[in-house]
Amino acid sequence: MPFVFIIIGIVAVTAGVRGTSQKLVTLAEGDLKGQNSFIYWILAIGIIGALGYVQDLRAFSRALLALVIIVLVIRDTNSQGSGGLFANFEAAIKQISGG
Questions:
Q1: How many other CB atoms are there within 10 angstroms of residue 74's CB atom?
Q2: What confidence score (pLDDT) does residue 98 get?
Q3: Backbone CA torsion sign across 23, 24, 26, 27
Q4: Are 68 and 44 in contact (CB under 8 A)?
Q5: Distance (Å, rounded) from C-alpha 46 to C-alpha 54?
Q6: Cα 65 to Cα 41: distance, rounded to the nearest angstrom
Q7: How far, in Å, CA of 69 to CA of 63, rounded?
Q8: What's the pLDDT tens digit per position in 1-22?
Q9: Sign (positive or negative) of CA dihedral 95, 35, 12, 70
Q10: 49: closest CA among 36, 26, 68?
Q11: What are the angstrom distances between the C-alpha of 18 and each of 22, 23, 24?
Q12: What per-residue confidence (pLDDT) applies to 81?
């Protein structure tokens, strides 16, 4: 857990030094507010992770966490958002290769 705070601190300091802290705040707000926000996924992972503290539910919690992570990786978003992992990866490759 300390690594998460270290990474957040490094990102915040880097944005401050570059003078792009307002852009960082705008991007974070876009991810955490609105219809397709990431906050629901964070909440779901937190609740499922909390189930893991109950000894009898530990295996169930780990299985659900694995399922949530798989869904996050392979899901396709709706027509308003961008595509899933594979569509975004393909678009990035095309952009880099110029095709």
A1: 10
A2: 66
A3: positive
A4: yes
A5: 14
A6: 11
A7: 10
A8: 688 899 999 999 999 999 988 9
A9: negative
A10: 68
A11: 11, 11, 11
A12: 54
